[in-house]
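pls ignore typos typing on phone
zinc ion + seq
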Amino acid sequence: MIIRNVRILGGEPVDLRIEDGLVAETGPGLSGDDGFDGGFDGRGAIVLPGLVDLHTHLREPGREDAETVQTGTQSAARGGYTAVHAMANTSPVADTAGVVEQVWRLGREFGHCDVQPVGAVTVGLEGRQLAELGAMADSAARVRVFSDDGKCVDDAVLMRRALEYVKAFDGVVAQHAQEPRLTGGAQMNEGVVSGRLGLTGWPAVAEEAIIARDCLLAAHVGSRLHVCHVSTAGSVEILRWAKSKGWDVTAEVTPHHLLLTDDLVEDSPVGAYNPIYKVNPPLRTRADVEALRAALADGTIDVVATDHAPHPVEDKETEWSAAAMGMVGLETALSVVQEAMVDTGLLDWAGVAERMSYAPARIGRLPGHGRPVEAGAVANLTLYDPSVRTAVDPSAFASKSRNTPYEGMTLPGRVVATFLRGRPTVLEGKLV
Ligand SMILES: [Zn+2]
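k done
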């Protein structure tokens, strides 16, 4: 088929010929079958390489009331993603070859994008004993990213062993950096707002201390470290220092930490103490947001990852202290990145491709994803129209959950189409 009138990374309009799941040819005015079934008019949309998420909670097995592999990957496809890394904090935990293969098979059977399971670092995410990392790496799921996300691997000895172990198969440990003893009962960012509201604070130092320790450990054993959802200006400083040493440390930031601040907990269009803003790590201050944007722009932070965390209504629409932490993010990520990074002049579309496709695929060692849109590449593509602005309507989400902080907010851009190995998963914004 031919995809007509699209702009690769925002360049001049061209056509793309797709054959056998590959981009066969790019150029202006390609001839070929452009009939109703065989062609698609992109009407000037930007083409990006299919987005890759390093940090998605698909909730299956165990919490199919919140999300399933099917609905989560439908949500991903609508957001322009062609691959997601499925976090390990399911029930049962993805800490054995059996469970990661189960998730991988569910992805092959029901996935609207590729599903790459993440393996747990420790048995049951309990932080006591290393999980069978080698067996997960050798399994059909080919696990390369290991994370206890949701919990921090806070034991320095275990973290060191995990970093040493994954070197054998070129794996990476993705750390949820949260010193647990500094965040007991924490409800939101520790600062002036938490003080006024009387909520227990989650101090920046609890994140920064773990990141500093883990950078030193990774350097000491010569292994790869990835830092999940960086949220503070101090963390950025530590990462900048670690990278200046040449250490193999990468980091991600979520869309919500690039846009939202902790004062929304006190005063927002949906009132005070609204748990829609409860997330871990918490929303931080305007100064943190500015530092995170600058770090993503200059490459200190490598990746935008959604931390898509679906929760059913009963877990979220309750009093602040009892509410679950997390936000859905797959279907709004690109729009939020446009708002925070592109429309502010901090990133161009090539920069977006690097941080939302090339870099996450590289860190996850994911073959077939994160390649430039050119002849010979696998046709994993996202068509995006940045010129429209629409109010976010959660009822239109493909996700089973609706816990978005952007409801009613007007955000730029719209995913027009997504192609997975040349096959459309989304056309005109609708699931195929
Ligand atoms: Zn986390």
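DSSP finds twelve helices and 18 strands in the chain. The pocket of zinc ion is lined by residues 149-150, 176, 228-229 (CB under 6 Å). more later
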